[in-house]
Each structure stands twice: as structure tokens, then as C-alpha cells.
Amino acid sequence: MTTRLLTDLSAPALVEALGPDSVVVLPVGAIEQHGPHLPVATDLITAASIAERAVAQFGDELDLWLLPPLAYTKSNEHAWSAGTFWLSAATLTAVLHDLGRSLARTPARRLVFLNGHGGNSALLQVAARDIRLETGLRTFTVHPRPPADQGGQSPAGELGMGVHGGMDETSLMLHLRPELVDMSQADRWVPEHLDAYRHVRFGGSVSFGWSSDDFGPAGVIGDASGATAEYGEQRAAGMVTYLGEALAEVARFDPRPPTA
User: Fold this and answer.
1) Distance CA 138, CA 143 (A)
2) How far apart (Å, rounded) are the C-alpha atoms in residues 187 and 189?
3) Among 62, 101, 117, 163, which residue has the fewest nearby CB atoms (within 10 Å)?
4) DSSP secondary-structure letter at 1?
């Protein structure tokens, strides 16, 4: 099977391999504090690993191609902590635009930001539209799973607030990179008082600006205490299945009305 990592190809081979129906996937991670029990590369590891699995499983069928992941992104909600390495919104926007312009020099016409960090979501959506308008590329933003603070689900015990370093992320890391997880430091940090709010809450109809230390000194928002590798394996498999379905739609997406 031909490699699906674009950077393994020479420039002429890359031009030959890509076509107008190719889908280029850019994993977008983050380097930021994830509490005392997880590595600062958690979002990067998750985005890169799930992207690799999805492209390996569906790449030949859907003509998917993988770019190396983008590690440093918009993480200033964790800027209070050592171990967070972040770019300003202006810098990250410029980087994304430059990458879009670069891809537009190839035959590929579809670019997917596979986002592993919820703090990037709004900026990626803005950049995706601007790159579309500037270059003509069809651009898409997809998460391996919708973040809890953007309407996604988290385990019931987290009251819908498993936003950062909780059950899901910790379980995923126990599956993906267990040697980097310290479960002796895993604890419950759920801001239960926010459950009294109907609208102003994570995933509610009214969003709010926040820093991760607003909710306690650990920088965790969720409950990591019950995390398991088995649950993480289930979550990873579900993510890959979902991405296969989502990327199949990306590969054939056309907003124009069909011609008679």
C-alpha cells in the first residue's frame, strides 16, 4: 500500500499522487497543562493518533492523505500554568492561512482540520472560511468527538462538564500512551455548582470566557478518578468509526445544487 503520509513523498510524487478528489487531513493538537496526571501533549497525542488510525483504515477508500500534526495552537486558557506553549489567535490564524496557501499549490482541493483541542474550534472555523474564500479549497473542521463545552457529551458523573483532563481524556491516554499517565494523581474536579445554571454553562446556550484555573488549582475540569484503558479503547474505536463516516461525506461534499 502506498504511504498515506504526504511528507514521505518527494515533491513530484506528491503532485502525482494527489488529485482534485483527495482529502488532506491536518491533525491540530495543543501543548498545554492537563492537570497533575496527564502529559502536556495529551491533545496532540490524541489528534495525531486518531488521525493516523482513521487515515490507515479509510485512506485507500476515500483518498485520504495525512499531514504531520500541528502541535502549538491556541491554549491561552491554560497560559497560567507552566507546560503550556501557545500561539496567539493572530499567529495561529496566519499559520493556518499559510498552510492553506501551500496546499493550494498541489492538485488537492479538500483540507480537513482534525481538531483535538476545543480551544481551537472557533478559530479553526473562521480560518476554514477565509482559506476557502482566498484559495478556493473546500475546507472542513472536524473533532474526533464534539467537546463537552460545545454541546458534546461526557460521562454522567461529570454533569456534562468533562471538559479538560477528565474521564474521557484520561481513559484515552491510558489506551494510547499509558506510560505517560499517573493515576495516583487522578482526582475529581467537577464544578458542580455550575449545574444550577440552565443557560450559562458548558455546552449551554450562553457561552462564557474562562481560564482553567477558574475552577480549581489542578487545572482539571472533570473526573479522572474512574478512567480505564478499556473505556479509552472503546472511545478510540468509536472516534475512528465516526471519522470514517464524516470523512466519507467530506470526500463527496458539494454545496452547489445538482444540475438537471
Assistant:
1) 17
2) 6
3) 101
4) -
Residue 74 sits at the vertex; the CA angle it makes with 207 and 9, to the nearest 5 degrees, is 130
Answering whether pTM is above 0.85, one says: yes
* CB-based contacts of 5, cutoff 8 Å, min separation 6: 65, 66, 68
The three grid cell numbers given for residue 84, joined into one nine-digit string: 503550556
How far apart CA 215 and CA 120 sit, in angstroms, is 20
For residue 96, what is the enclosing H or E element?
helix 89-103
pLDDT digits (tens, 9 = 90+) for 146-196: 877 787 778 889 998 999 999 999 999 999 999 999 999 999 999 999 999
CB atoms within 10 A of CB 76: 14
Question: At residue 116, what is the residue type?
Answer: G
Q: Residue 72: left (phi > 0), alpha (psi -120 to 50), or beta?
A: beta
Q: Which amino acid is at 82?
A: A
Region 125-139: mean pLDDT is 98
Helix orientation angle between 121-135 and 89-103, rounded to the nearest 10 degrees: 40
9: Cα separation from own chain's centroid? 25
* 168, 233 contact by CB (below 8 A): no
